[in-house]
Amino acid sequence: MPSDPTAVDAGLLVLRVLVGVTFSLHGMQKLFGWFGGGGLEGTAGWFRSLGFGDGRAAAVVAGASELAGGLGLALGLLTPLACAAMAGTMTTAGLVNNHENGFWSVSKGWELNGYLVAVALAVAVAGPGAWSLDAAVLGIDPGPLVGAGVVALGVLGGWLRWTTRDADTTG
C-alpha cells in the first residue's frame, strides 16, 4: 500500500527543519561565537590543536559547511549539496574526534556523527519532498542515484580532509 504523499512530505519537512536548523546553529557557533561557540578564533585554535594547520581555513570551511548545509537542508534548497556538506563535515568530525573511541556516544564514539551522515544520505536519496524550495521554486529533483553519489563525494571529501591533516600535532 503506497504512503500518503502529504504525510511523507510533512515528515521530510519536520526532519529537514529540525536537523538542518540545529546543524546550522553549530556553524554559527564556529563562525560567529553565537550560542556559546568559540567563534572563528576559538574554533581555529581548536582545529590547530587537531592538526589542521593554523586552523583558520578549517574553521571557516567547517563553519560555512554547517551553516550553509544546515540552512540548505532546512529549506530543501540544493538539497544534495546541502546533504554532501553535512556528510563531509560529520565524516571529518567523526574520524578526528571520535573514531578511536568506538561507536557509542557514551564513550565519546562516532555514533552521533554516523546518525547525521545517515540522515544526509536518506534525505538526498528520498529527495526533500514537495514542501521544499527545490520542488516548489526550482522544480528540480536530481533523483536517488545523484543524491547518493553527491553524498558519497561529501563523505570522501571528509575522509580526505582527515587523512591530509598533520596528525603529529594532535594530542
What does this entry look like structurally?
It is a single chain. With 171 residues, this protein is an all-alpha fold. The chain has one domain. It is built from seven helices and no strands. The protein has helices at residues 5-32, 39-49, 56-75, 79-98, 111-126, 133-138, 144-163. The radius of gyration is 16 Å and the shape is globular.
Topology (elements, then pairings):
Blueprint: H1 5-32, H2 39-49, H3 56-75, H4 79-98, H5 111-126, H6 133-138, H7 144-163
Structure characteristics:
171 residues, globular, mainly alpha
Using the CA coordinates, give the radius of gyration. 16 Å
The fraction of residues assigned to DSSP E strands is: under 5%
Number of strands: 0
Shape: globular
Number of helices: 7
How far apart the termini lie comes to 54 Å
Please identify the oligomeric state.
single chain
State the low-pLDDT regions, or none: none
Overall domain count: 1
In this structure, how is the largest beta sheet organized? none
Helix content: over 70%
Q: Give the structural class.
A: mainly alpha
The secondary-structure element order is: HHHHHHH
Mean pLDDT: 94
Question: Can you summarize this structure?
Answer:
This protein is an all-alpha fold.
